[in-house]
Design brief:
Strand content: under 5%
Order of helices and strands: HHHHH
Number of domains: 2
Largest sheet: none
Distance between the termini: 31 Å
Helix content: 55-70%
Number of helices: 5
């Protein structure tokens, strides 16, 4: 599945959870048993990217700026 996503130009955030459940044939009552796992660093980067885009940066500029900001973040060093 991962290989197909990469080779097909996979873009995260396109309601992939719903597609995963549909493709796996899971019933509605089984869905609450699954949780979204998001590493702390990744969550911080996503939040920073959103802030950067709101200031008018392009997607690529926001990604680079978020990386730079979070690479120097004190919370990251502490493992939070």
């Amino acid at each position: 599945m991962c290989h197909e996503r990469v080779t097909a130009g996979y873009q995260p955030g396109k309601n992939e959870g719903s597609a995963l459940f549909a493709n796996a044939g899971l019933e509605e009552e089984q869905r609450p048993r699954f949780v979204r796992v998001l590493p702390n660093d990744f969550g911080r980067v996503l939040a920073t990217q959103k802030k950067m885009r709101e200031t008018g940066m392009s997607e690529e500029e926001a990604e680079m700026a978020a990386f730079e900001v979070n690479s120097r973040d004190v919370a990251r060093v502490g493992g939070r």
